[in-house]
Design goal:
- The chain has 156 residues and is mainly α.
- The protein folds into 2 domains: 1-78, no CATH class; 84-156, no CATH class.
- It has 8 helices and 2 strands.
- The protein has helices spanning 10-19, 32-44, 59-62, 68-78, 91-101, 113-129, 137-148, 150-155; strands at 4-9, 50-56.
- It has a two-stranded antiparallel sheet with strand order 1-2.
- The longest helix is centred in the last third of the chain and has 17 residues, at 113-129.
- It starts with a strand and ends with a helix.
Length: 156
């Protein structure tokens, strides 16, 4: 798939660069001057905590990450609403959907790729048993909370 703009917080960027430190090159590298400028802007402006890395394809870089914060940030940024057609075929799109559509603002930083795959399989099972043929993001999220995060429903 083609690259997409990826917005990362400073913390996410630091963790990602640490993960990719063995790579000769990666699209998230910044020069010392760019880093200094970003750090100065962060001190001066609240909104400057994030930086846009343009036209990045994340799949190759996801294979080289172990940190769930990095994995989830890249999935979050890769997802677009038009990805709904393959949402249950691809864990990256599934994670992106959940993180972007989470109305409860849950923190998914510590959820690992394996846990996401387990969540996705639970939802697939639920969908296979359902007589419903058309699924919207809202429907996925309802099933996600019901099947994967019942404690959120209880707390509401």
């Amino acid at each position: 798939m083609s690259g997409r703009n990826v917005w990362l917080s400073y913390q996410e960027w630091v963790l990602l660069c640490d993960e990719l430190s063995d790579a000769k090159w990666h699209p998230f590298q910044l020069s010392k001057k760019e880093i200094k400028h970003w750090e100065e802007a962060r001190k001066e402006y609240k909104f400057a905590d994030q930086k846009c890395f343009q036209r990045v394809g994340v799949y190759h870089w996801l294979d080289n990450t172990q940190n769930p914060i990095v994995f989830n940030a890249l999935c979050r940024e890769y997802y677009r609403g038009q990805d709904m057609s393959n949402i249950m075929d691809d864990v990256v799109s599934f994670v992106g959907l959940v993180i972007n559509y989470d109305d409860n603002k849950n923190c998914f930083d510590k959820v690992t790729e394996t846990e996401w795959k387990d969540h996705m399989n639970k939802i697939k099972e639920y969908m296979n048993k359902s007589d419903k043929s058309l699924w919207y993001a809202k429907d996925f999220m309802e099933v996600f909370y019901q099947e994967c995060m019942p404690q959120v429903l209880v707390a509401q």
